[in-house]
C-alpha cells in the first residue's frame, strides 16, 4: 500500500486534478491519497490558503466577508465545473464555509485555523467526488473521524502518539481514502492546523501509521536537485539520498518538503519518494535510511539567507563558568531559538534566524548582555547567509574542507563562520548574503564538475 500526497500545484485546477486521478488510477496500491488546498495555477496566482487567510482576517475584523468569500468560491466553482461535477459539491462547500464563519471568534488563532483548514478539507471532498464520478471507489475521510489527534498549539500543532494507532485502521479500508492534509483535531474536537506547508506532515503521519511500502510526495518538480536550479545551471538530479541528508538540505533552503515531514516516515522506516504530477514517468528522488555514498562525498549544496549574528566578546570568557548559559537565558527570555554557536577563546557568536528579531528585542538583548554579563563588545549583524554542504559520504573524507576553502579562495568570498556538526553529514559556512550566488556556483563546480576547476 502506498500513501500518495498531492501538493497545492497538483490540485490547483481541474486540469491538474485530472492528472492526479490518472496517477491514482494507474496503480491500485495507491490506497491513501492526501491532498493540499488548491495552490498557484501560474506565477503570481494566489493560493487558496492565502485567500482563506484574507477571509478569516476580514471576519475577525468584523468587516464584510462577501468579497473574500466570493474569491474563494470562484476557485472551487472553476475547478468543479472543469471536472464536470454537478452543483451539489459547490453547495456543500459553500454551506461548510458559511458554517465555519459563524464559529466562535474569541480566540483569533483558533478561528483562523478553522477557516484555513477548510482549503484542504473541501479540496479532499471535491477530489473524492471527482474520483467517484470517474468510476473509482473513493471516499473522503475526516481527520477527526479517523483519529488524527494533535496537541493544543494553533498554527503549528503536532500529532499525538495515539494518532498513529487510530490511523492504522485505514489499512483495512477497501475504498481509496481521500484525506485532507494540514490539520488534525484536539481530543476535545477542536481543529488545529500544522505549520504552513503542513500537508506533507499529514502524508508522512499516515504513511507511518499504515506502515506503507512507500510515501509518495507528488509536487511540480521531477526530483530534488543537488543545488538550487535558479542559481546553478542544470544541477545534477539526486536519485537517492538519506533522511538525514534531506533534513540537512531542507534546513537551508531546499523547500521541497516541510522539515517536520521526515520524522514520522523516518521512525517507521517508510521510504519517501519526491515525484512530479506533471511528469509521472520520471522516477523522482528516493529518500531512504541508507545508501551507497562511495561515488560522491557531497550530495547537495544548499544556501539560505535571513540569518543574524549576535557577536559577544569578553576577555577571559573561556574561564567564566555559566557564561554561555546566562547568554542563552537572555535569548530564551525573548523567546528566541538559536542555530549555531561558533566560539573563540574570548568571544562567541550566536547565529539566529533574523525573523525572530525586532528592533526592540535587539536593543534589549544588547543592553542585557552588556550590563548583566559585562561583555566588552556586543553587536548584532543581520545580513548573513548559510551555505551547507551535505553528504553522508563526507564523514572521514580527508581534504574535503580544504577543497571547499579553495573554492572560497578562488571567488575571494570571505568565510565568516565554519561549523561542522559532529555527525559530519554537513559542513556549514556563514557568509555575507551578497556573496551567496557566487560561492554557491563555485562550490557546485568544485564538488560536481571538478574537471572545470582543476
Ligand atoms: N495549504 C497549506 C499551505 O499553503 C498547506 C499545504 O499545502 O501543505 O501552506
From TrEMBL:
Its EC number is 2.7.2.4. Pathway: Amino-acid biosynthesis; L-methionine biosynthesis via de novo pathway; L-homoserine from L-aspartate: step 1/3; Amino-acid biosynthesis; L-threonine biosynthesis; L-threonine from L-aspartate: step 1/5; Amino-acid biosynthesis; L-lysine biosynthesis via DAP pathway; (S)-tetrahydrodipicolinate from L-aspartate: step 1/4. The keyword ATP-binding applies. One of its GO terms (molecular function) is kinase activity. Residues 389-454 form the ACT domain. SUPFAM superfamilies: ACT-like (SSF55021), Carbamate kinase-like (SSF53633). It holds the Pfam family ACT_9. It catalyses: L-aspartate + ATP = 4-phospho-L-aspartate + ADP. InterPro entries: AceGlu_kinase-like_sf (IPR036393), ACT-like_dom_sf (IPR045865), ACT_Aspartokinase (IPR054352), ACT_dom (IPR002912), AKIII_YclM_N (IPR035804), Asp/Glu/Uridylate_kinase (IPR001048), Asp_kin_monofn (IPR005260), Asp_kinase (IPR001341). CDD domains: AAK_AKiii-YclM-BS, ACT_AKiii-YclM-BS_1, ACT_AKiii-YclM-BS_2. Keywords: Amino-acid biosynthesis, ATP-binding, Diaminopimelate biosynthesis, Kinase, Lysine biosynthesis, Nucleotide-binding, Transferase. The keyword Nucleotide-binding applies. It is an enzyme of class 2 (transferase). Belongs to the aspartokinase family. Catalyzes the phosphorylation of the beta-carboxyl group of aspartic acid with ATP to yield 4-phospho-L-aspartate, which is involved in the branched biosynthetic pathway leading to the biosynthesis of amino acids threonine, isoleucine and methionine. This is Aspartokinase.
Amino acid at each position: 500500500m502506498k500513501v500518495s500526497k498531492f501538493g497545492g500545484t497538483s490540485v490547483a485546477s481541474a486540469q491538474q486534478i485530472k492528472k492526479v486521478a490518472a496517477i491514482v488510477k494507474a496503480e491500485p496500491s495507491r490506497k491513501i491519497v492526501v491532498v493540499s488546498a488548491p495552490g498557484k495555477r501560474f506565477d503570481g496566482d494566489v493560493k487558496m490558503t492565502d485567500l482563506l487567510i484574507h477571509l478569516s482576517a476580514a471576519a475577525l475584523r468584523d468587516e464584510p466577508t462577501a468579497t473574500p468569500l466570493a474569491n474563494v468560491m470562484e476557485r472551487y466553482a472553476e475547478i468543479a465545473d472543469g471536472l464536470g461535477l454537478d452543483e451539489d459539491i459547490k453547495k456543500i462547500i459553500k454551506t461548510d464555509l458559511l458554517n465555519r464563519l459563524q464559529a466562535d471568534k474569541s480566540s483569533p488563532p483558533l478561528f483562523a485555523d478553522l477557516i484555513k483548514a477548510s482549503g484542504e478539507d473541501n479540496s479532499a471532498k471535491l477530489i473524492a467526488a471527482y474520483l467517484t464520478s470517474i468510476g473509482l471507489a473513493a471516499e473522503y475521510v475526516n481527520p477527526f473521524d479517523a483519529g488524527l489527534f494533535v496537541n493544543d498549539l494553533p498554527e503549528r500543532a503536532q500529532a499525538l502518539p495515539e494518532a498513529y494507532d487510530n490511523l492504522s485502521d485505514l489499512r483495512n479500508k477497501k475504498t481509496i481514502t481521500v484525506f485532507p492534509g494540514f490539520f488534525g483535531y484536539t481530543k476535545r474536537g477542536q481543529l488545529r492546523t500544522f505549520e504552513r506547508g503542513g500537508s506533507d506532515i499529514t502524508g508522512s503521519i499516515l504513511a507511518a501509521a499504515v506502515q506503507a511500502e512507500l510515501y509518495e510526495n507528488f509536487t511540480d518538480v521531477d526530483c530534488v536537485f543537488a543545488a538550487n536550479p535558479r542559481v546553478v545551471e542544470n544541477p545534477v538530479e539526486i536519485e537517492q539520498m538519506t533522511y538525514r541528508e534531506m533534513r540537512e538540505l531542507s534546513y537551508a533552503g531546499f523547500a521541497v518538503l516541510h522539515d517536520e515531514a521526515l520524522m514520522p516516515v523516518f521512525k517507521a522506516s517508510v521510504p519517501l519518494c519526491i515525484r512530479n504530477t506533471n511528469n509521472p514517468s520520471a522516477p523522482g528522488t528516493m529518500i531512504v535510511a541508507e545508501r551507497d555514498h562511495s561515488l560522491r562525498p557531497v550530495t547537495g549544496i544548499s544556501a539560505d539567507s535571513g540569518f543574524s549574528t549576535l557577536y559577544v566578546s569578553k576577555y577571559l570568557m573561556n574561564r567564566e563558568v555559566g557564561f554561555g548559559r546566562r547568554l542563552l537565558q537572555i535569548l530564551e527570555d525573548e523567546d528566541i531559538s538559536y542555530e549555531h554557536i561558533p566560539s573563540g577563546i574570548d568571544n562567541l557568536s550566536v547565529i539566529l534566524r533574523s525573523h525572530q528579531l525586532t528592533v526592540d528585542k535587539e536593543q534589549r538583548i544588547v543592553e542585557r548582555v552588556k550590563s548583566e554579563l559585562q561583555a566588552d563588545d556586543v553587536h548584532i549583524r543581520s545580513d548573513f547567509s548559510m551555505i551547507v554542504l551535505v553528504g553522508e559520504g563526507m564523514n572521514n573524507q580527508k581534504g574535503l574542507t580544504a577543497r571547499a576553502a579553495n573554492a572560497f579562495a578562488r571567488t575571494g568570498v570571505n568565510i565568516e563562520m565554519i561549523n561542522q556538526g559532529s555527525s559530519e553529514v554537513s559542513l556549514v559556512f556563514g557568509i555575507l548574503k551578497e556573496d551567496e550566488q557566487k560561492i554557491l556556483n563555485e562550490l557546485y563546480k568544485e564538488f560536481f564538475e571538478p574537471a572545470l576547476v582543476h
